[in-house]
Amino acid sequence: MRAEYCNIWYGLLQEMNGSFTVEHATCGANGICTTSYSPVCQCLDGFIPKSPDDWNHRENSEGCVRKTPLNCSSDGFLALENVKLPDTLNASAVSNLTLDECRNLCLKNCSCKAFSIISDSMCLIWTGDLVDVRAITEGGNDLHIRLAAFELDTVGSYSSRKISLAITVIIPLLSFLLLLCVASLLWLKRRNSGKVLNSYYFRSKGNDWELPLYDMLTIREATNNFSKDNIVGMVGLALFTR
Hints:
Layout: H1 2-15, E1 31-33, E2 41-43, E3 47-49, H2 52-56, E4 64-66, E5 76-84, E6 91-94, H3 99-108, E7 114-118, E8 122-126, E9 133-135, E10 141-147, H4 149-205, H5 216-222, E11 231-235, E12 238-241
Parallel strand pairs: 1-9
Antiparallel strand pairs: 1-2, 3-4, 5-9, 5-10, 6-8, 7-8, 7-10, 11-12
């Protein structure tokens, strides 16, 4: 299967620092070869397999086609970062241009399918299919792919949905965990405070919860035989002395 070559030879390319090359156009037109995903051949954003059945069987030679045709007037660009640029057989170069100038040059040409800036000021524009694009880990260039406005909105909406989903899930989860931590700390603090109070009480009072008992002789001596001078109050038949 052709896609296997992309994986095998691309691994050799990385290990041998470029001594070997990946089989040319493994993933077909408008496809990208990458070892970061499985299968290794993927269609570029805004494209779909030309032959889905062959693509599902890892036969990728027919490549990919656009989901939505370009209309020239409202197209935009999607940046694909750090890639080996497509073949330059259908590309042209203009020197001493900035990124914006190169972009405008491509927009004015309805046949332009992508552009890239290399060596800081060299503008490359492609007017045909993008062939032999490969994702690389370092030393690549940014390829700006021309897409219909609808496809740009779709890609942007998908990215926004992923961000919104992450915010919707992560923030409430973090808030719940924070609240749980605070509640646990307060519970532990209250529990430890109760232990300290109980420990202090039992150290100072002992474990005897009964009131002290005195015999009658002790009471008579303490109250001077229930002297009227020591009476402090009376409730019913109960007499309180000091």
